[in-house]
Amino acid sequence: MKFSPRIDAIARRIAGTRRPGRRLTDTTLKRPLRAVHRDGKSTMSTTSDVLQRVTALVAAVADRPVDEITAESRLVEDLDLDSLQVVEIAVRAEEEFGSPVDDSLLAEQGVTVAHCARVVQQANAQEVRT
Fold it and tell me: Which residues contact 76 (CB under 8 A, 6 or more apart)?
């Protein structure tokens, strides 16, 4: 039985697998998170760039215009996202940024878009170090 792509992504997240190479198609999210220097080492994008891209990602999941979403917008309380949508944010962030994002860090009460951006940036920094 085939489910919607959203449910498939959530099921893959729960099962610990993801479809390789799949990225969001939103035009604001097309830039890679890491820039590669001449020596082959990757570096993290700026904090404001990550925040902008996570804001666009949250707007896509919440089905709202990007200009309605601020860094202080709370996922559950302000944007009325349910637990599946929070997991979807983690899945999409993982696919977009290339680093595993712990969705339990996003499922807490009072989590803001800025907090999501910090979690993504920290996850990516850990992966770069390893």
Answer: 82, 86, 109, 111
3-state DSSP assignment of residue 66: helix
Each residue's pLDDT tens digit, 39-98:
444 445 688 899 999 999 999 999 999 999 999 999 999 999 999 999 999 999 999 888
- H-type alpha helices, the chain: 5-15, 47-62, 83-97, 113-129
Give ∠ CA 18-32-108 in degrees, rounded to 5: 55
What pTM does this model have? 0.66
Residue 36 β-bridge partners: 42
d(CA 76, CA 112): 9
The Cα 98–Cα 11 span in angstroms is 18
Domain ranges of the chain: 5-129
* Architecture of the CATH domain 5-129: Orthogonal Bundle (1.10)
